[in-house]
Design brief:
The chain is an alpha/beta fold. Helices cover 44% and strands 15% of the residues. The strands form 4 sheets. The protein has a 7-stranded parallel beta sheet, sandwiched between helices. A two-stranded parallel sheet has the order 7-10. The chain has a two-stranded parallel ribbon with strand order 8-13.
Length: 367
């Protein structure tokens, strides 16, 4: 387990339980959004949530409902709608104190294939949400950005003040979000905090479909005893971050009273670089220990994809110093929890082999 600033995070959770706050979580039927929804309801908060099910699912919401129980679920109001519709955003923001904005179309490959869809959801939808939050006089707006904004800058580790040219429409959309957030925070009476997620993983991350992230897709292939597709020679590296760390960062960003922290963008990651070959061996070792009946998967190397960056490694000092962020799960802790969940969901993992083999593995999966 990684070093944890227990006192600061515990204080934040205690503060939540002691006060009446109404939250809005956009993208609540998605991977990260559903974890945020679950944590807030567990902390006895009132939550409005919004999703259009473009990439989210009813099943994730039902999982949260079962996990928190009916009494907590009654503190939740769900709105089915699209952030591309300003009236939906206004309705969702009514009587809300804090927004956790996760809704977006993720995936670098999807953005290269469908740049207009990416722009509509990630840029137009984002501005709609900012405008609706401003009109509703919301006090705090925390949003999901991405490590993709670092683009072609080769510097490692990645520090917040230095970015390169975007390498995909998805990366550009997240960069534009950061610029709009900065303008709104300076022009209007709204506090906006951005979180640059690095490669987030954990339970409920969908392993199927053409834009599945690398860890759930490899979990599907390993549990099925199939070859594991690695784009490139395996030396590319990523900073893999377990979803509980991301939940922590959102709550800390939402509650911080440090003036300088309230209009910034922060890296949210483990702060450790792992090559794809290292990730493969770590995952295979855990799967083999869990399931001795599963044949040992082997890697198959495919060409590097357009838009992929070679290496990603976050400097998380700013989030540590200003938010009190401390990852509670390192890579191995997170993989054990995530793979345990995928093992329990094995029937869904090993379903459509043709769909998995025809799809590209996304290394940049954000909300």
């Amino acid at each position: 387990m990684a070093d944890v600033d227990v006192e600061r995070f515990t204080s934040a959770k205690d503060l939540l339980r002691a006060q009446h706050v109404r939250w809005l979580v956009t993208g609540s039927a998605g991977f990260i959004g559903s974890h945020l929804l679950e944590r807030l309801l567990t902390l006895e908060q009132e939550v409005v949530s919004l999703d259009n099910f473009a990439t989210g699912s009813h099943a994730k919401l039902e999982t949260v409902r079962a996990g928190v129980g009916e009494a907590s679920w009654r503190r939740h109001r769900f709105i089915e709608g699209d952030i591309a519709d300003i009236e939906v955003c206004r309705t969702a923001c009514a009587s809300v104190n804090i927004v956790l904005h996760q809704a977006a179309l993720g995936s670098v490959p999807r953005s290269i294939k469908s740049p207009l869809d990416t722009h509509a959801a990630n840029v137009n939808g984002f501005v709609n949400m900012l405008a609706a939050a401003k009109a509703a006089r919301i006090s705090r707006f925390v949003y999901a950005s991405s490590s993709a904004v670092y683009g072609d800058d080769p510097t490692l580790p990645k520090t917040e003040e230095r970015i390169g040219r975007p390498l995909s429409p998805y990366a550009l959309s997240k960069r534009v979000n950061e610029e709009y957030a900065d303008v709104f925070s300076r022009c209007y009476d709204i506090t906006v905090v951005g979180l640059r997620y690095f490669n987030v993983f954990g339970p409920r991350q969908d392993p199927s479909g053409p834009y599945a992230a690398v860890i759930p897709r490899w979990a599907a292939e390993l549990f099925a005893g199939e070859p594991v597709a690695i784009h490139g020679d395996g030396s590319n590296s990523r900073d893999f971050c377990y979803v509980d760390n991301v939940v922590q960062a959102n709550l800390l960003a939402a509650l911080t009273d440090l003036p300088g922290a309230q209009h910034r963008v922060y890296n949210v990651a483990l702060g450790r670089r792992t090559t794809l070959v290292e990730l493969f061996h770590a995952m295979r070792s855990i799967v083999m220990a869990m399931r001795s009946d599963v044949p040992s998967g082997e890697p198959v190397f495919w060409p590097v994809r357009a838009g992929d960056i070679p290496h990603s490694h976050a400097d998380i000092r700013l989030a540590r110093e200003e938010l009190g962020y401390r990852p509670t799960h390192d890579l191995e802790d997170g993989l054990r929890e995530a793979l345990g969940w995928y093992d329990c969901s094995a029937a869904g993992l090993v379903g459509n082999k043709e769909q998995r083999s025809n799809g590209a593995t996304s290394l940049e999966r954000n909300p």
